[in-house]
Amino acid sequence: MNSEILIKNGRLIDPANGIDKECDVLIADDKIASVGKVEKPVQKIIDATGKLVTPGLIDIHVHFREPGDEEEETIASGSAAAVAAGFTSVVCMPNTKPPIENETDVEYVHRKARQARKTHVYTMGAITKGREGVELAEMGFMAEAGAVGFTDDGSGVQDPAVMLRALKYADMFDVVIAQHCQDNAFAGNGVMNSGYYSTILGLPGIDPLAEEAMLWRDIQLVRKTNVRYHAQHISTAGSVELIRAAKKDSLPITCEVTPHHLLLTEECCAEYDTNYKVNPPLRSAKDIEALKEAIKEGLVDALVTDHGPHLQSEKELEFLAAPFGIASLECALALFVKALIEPGILDWPGLVRLMTENPAKIIGVDKGTLGVGKQADVTIIDPKAEYEIDVNRFRSKSRNCPYHGWKVTGKVEKTIVGGEIRFEA
Amino acid sequence: MFETKLFWSIEFWSFRFVSNFDFRISDLHEVMALIKKGKSFKWHRKHLLGLRELSSEEIIYILDTAKGFEQISTRSVKKAPPLRGKVVVNMFFEDSTRTRNSFALAANRLSADIIEFTEKASSVSKGETLLDTARNLEAMGIDIVVIRHSAGGAAKLLSRNINACVVNAGDGFCEHPTQGLLDVYTIRKIKGTLEGLKIAIVGDIAHSRVARSDMWAMTKLGAEVIFVGPPTLMPSWASKLPVSVSYSLDEVIEKVDVINMLRIQFERLGGNPFPSVREYSHYFGLTLERMKRAKPDILVMHPGPINRGLEIESEVADGRNSVILDQVTNGLAVRMAVLFLVNQARAQQGKEAKHEKRIYPD
Q1: Given its phi and psi angles, is residue A359 left (phi above 0), alpha (psi -120 to 50 degrees) or beta?
Q2: Residue B91's beta-bridge partner residues?
Q3: Inter-chain touch A202–B152, beta carbons under 8 Å
Q4: Confidence check: pLDDT of A222 > 70
Q5: Were A10 and a residue from A53, A165, A351, B240 both cysteine, which residue would form a disulfide, CB within 3.0 to 4.6 Å?
Q6: Domains A4-52+375-396+407-424 and A56-363 share a fold
Q7: Pairwise CB contact (< 8 Å): A202 & B171
Q8: Which range in A258-262, B41-45, B260-264 is most confidently predicted, on average pLDDT?
Q9: Read out DSSP for B281-324?
Q10: Would an 8 Å CB–CB cutoff place B265 in contact with chain A?
Q11: Global confidence as pTM
Q12: Whole-number pLDDT of residue B238
């Protein structure tokens, strides 16, 4: 076995190694063989002139719905969507039916991913059995089977004593505990941000405090246990303040932000379009400003999609009854370009860092860089390509994407996973 | 001037209708011509979803049209033909007596055929979605859907997806536009105008669609609205609404020209927003004692059904300032006007009105 790919003349962006320059990358089998000026007659040469060559993008927050809701998404369809969007690794959330709560479940996800043979699919395990927030799930067995972290995502662990126990126990395995911060007592039956729009639309609101109260609580627990903690999809200015303070105290806390919390506001719900129903809910322009400022300051560690596919028939229900979630995996890169690069919040290396090196570190995998000898996960991006988002061309099974028809810039040209070209535009 | 013409015209119709079943379409055109001549303004909405999106001209236009229809109910033959051959569906997913009967009667008086559809179960548990139900009814050839639903935005969702007219008869705690209209109609009829009036709306504002529709209609017509109730029943963002807020009925009672007492909706209250019914009545009940300090010509309103002795004492509800039953009477005229106008707008848009924007592109 000796397959080689040479990517020539691209702008190589590898934040982990501080590289941002025009050079070549040679891939031999599934590893990066050399970086620099490479003159070698290999069978497969990719001319990347004018393109960006980056480590394979990593999305540490997706919902592929398998097992349980295969009509919405499967690991196969989600993986196909992922490589088309430049993601060489994704992390599935465990809120499937049944939830991922033991090593067999973890192995099931891995097996389906191997069969799909598109992107690397990791999974987090549930913190508690049945995601009920009462008894700890078998974190040790799941970690051994390859779970890259634990979360009850979809909801947060409500009981502070259970959360404290989870953090303490996790200390034994060096894994990250991730949390969907939302205090259900505060959030009640809310379906959108609590504010002017929820008032006039007559819809129950979710106060930003619901997120902030749990985040504050968790930060105190991390202060006590010093276990790695990851705040998922933070969405409010108040959460940014809490993260800022926690990082100042050098606590082992990281956080992530989604494209919809950077691009859409609660006002989008004004027509009761359920494609804008998402949890945490779309907030205000002020919150968007705070999140962008946080990204600029380097407070945000990772950009994720929280890809949440749902059936059209479910999203056609009343706003109250429709499920939460936005399917945005396939247009994620362009959305981040629009939210962060176009207004000058980040440059390309900055964006790539939040989509490669940092998320790899959070889940503790040796990825997200193009260093020699590393696994050959590479994404080639045309930063100038303009296109219109068309949900009907998605490889994902679902269409619940509010960005349909948006004109965006930045397109994935090729995705190489483990030395194999798995996607070509 | 215009109103008298409209009266005459409807009188004329019903006479013809009763005496001779050979009603001609040209009669309908006649009344439309009259409306057009009377006002340069033209009604164009084929749905009535809420009052927030209506201009003051549109609201006044409905009220003026309702005035014409009020007459019909006072005559021995209470029927006019403008909706003859049209089918109205009363789609009620929530309990209602007043509103449902009022709409049914209004449609009857306009000679429409009526289908009553009552479904307590939510669409999800029932297995058939709201849209599927509506599409099925539409396939039977209905013209107007009157919908009451526990989810805010249900009427809007429907209007986007079916071709028939949609009239919102209450959606969650978003809006109840015909109630708002009949409230301002009642006030206008007695006071002449809403301009400069001070109006208190008392009770569970947070969960009240009536409060919201009232607020939009009343403020658009120039009244000053005060929301009165305990902070736990106020929307948390009342400061951004075009109203002032008071927690003291005692302070407000002396100042206002109209007081609208909302029903405490036990079915909607989560938790316990006030400690006891006794304590609530003590602070926010409209008692004879409080009425002594009110303006002598204050109008006492209530959207019904009344919890006697809770938010309002029986003596007040049945007292000389009460217009609670006038509200019900006027509701009929207002609903006739609404059904009439949306149907007209749809007829005019006619062929051009293909399916409007859908949520999902095909």
Answers
A1: alpha
A2: B117, B147
A3: yes
A4: yes
A5: A53
A6: no
A7: yes
A8: A258-262
A9: HHHH-B-HHHHTTS-TTPEEE--S---BTTTB-HHHHTSTTB-H
A10: no
A11: 0.89
A12: 85
Q: Is A394 helix (H, G, I), strand (E, B) or coil?
A: coil
For A33, the 3-state DSSP assignment is strand
Q: Which residues of A346-362 are buried (b: 16+ CB within 10 A; e: fewer)?
A: bebbbbbbbbbbbbbbb
Predicted confidence band of residue B273 (pLDDT cuts 50, 70, 90): confident
Best probe of the A interface among B47, B237, B241, by most A CBs < 10 A, is B237
Residues of A within 8 A of B171 (CB-CB) are: 202
Given a cut of 70, whether residue A284 has pLDDT beyond it is yes
* The domain over range B178-325 is classified in CATH as 3.40.50.1370: yes
End-to-end CA distance of chain B: 50
Ordered by start, the domain boundaries in chain B are 1-42, 43-176+330-339, 178-325
A327 in Cβ contact with A249 (< 8 Å): no
A56-363: what fold? Answer: TIM Barrel (3.20.20)
CA distance B117 to B128: 14
A47 is catalytic: no
Superfamily of domain B43-176+330-339: Aspartate/ornithine carbamoyltransferase (3.40.50.1370)
Which CATH class, in words, describes the domain spanning A4-52+375-396+407-424?
A: mainly beta
Cα distances (Å, whole numbers) of residue B32 to B41, B56, B119, B337: 12, 21, 36, 13
Question: What's the one-letter identity of residue A74?
Answer: T
Question: What are the domain boundaries of chain A?
Answer: 4-52+375-396+407-424, 56-363
For A110, other C-beta atoms within 10 Å of its C-beta total 18
Q: Is A366 in the B-facing interface, judged by CB distances under 8 Å?
A: no
Q: Quote the minimal CA–CA distance from B216 to chain A in Å.
A: 10
Which residues in chain A are closer than 8 Å to B123, comparing Cβ atoms? 317-318, 321
Are domains B43-176+330-339 and B178-325 of this chain identical in fold? yes
What mean pLDDT, rounded, does chain A reach?
96
The answer to whether B361 contacts A404, with C-beta atoms less than 8 Å apart, is: yes
* Choice among A306, A347, A366, A377 that is catalytic: A306
What angle do the packed helices B177-191 and B324-349 form, to 10 degrees?
Answer: 120
Supply the pLDDT for residue B360.
Answer: 47
Q: Is A278 left (phi over 0), alpha (psi -120 to 50) or beta?
A: beta
